[in-house]
Amino acid sequence: MSGADDRTARRPTDAADAAVAVGAETLVDVLAELATHGFAGSFTAREPGDGAPTGSAQVSCGSCATAFPAAEFQVEYERRLEGASDAADLMFVAAGRCPGCGEGGSLTLTYGPNASIADAAVLEALDVHRASAAPLQD
Fold first, then answer.
1. Domain boundaries in the chain?
2. CA distance 76 to 105
């Protein structure tokens, strides 16, 4: 192969490939993996005071709209991600089930310097000590 052919062979084929560091997982990869293991739903963080008791970080279920204290969200699986081009793009993905309807889903939070007030409050309230960070098994 000539030098020009070598450069072409190593060039990413699309913009998505170029935006991901070698060996890195994307949020899309993690969410797809969770969906195949029964966590296809979604949860969102709610700020303390956003329809929640004062000082209580809340999680809201995307399936049944139940809002519950973040401390009650039982995290079964967690994964931390960072941006390929900006290490300050820090994300935390937690998988668990809604105490209202039982739907399995994922809760995606930012943390670090770019975290929202809601995300930081929910992340602080979560108990992740029993959660697995290992790849999910079929």
1. 24-125
2. 10
Rounded to 5, what percent of the chain is helix, strand, coil?
A: 30, 30, 45
The amino acid present at 107, given as its one-letter code, is: L
CB 101 within 8 A of CB 64: yes
DSSP secondary structure code for residue 116 in this structure: -
Condensed to tens digits (0 to 9), the pLDDT of residues 111-126 reads: 988 899 999 999 999 9
pTM tops 0.90, yes or no: no
The residue to which tokens 């309230």 are assigned: 125
Say what the alpha-carbon torsion angle 50, 54, 58, 64 is, to the nearest 10 degrees.
-60
* Closest-CA residue to 79 (of 15, 13, 31): 31
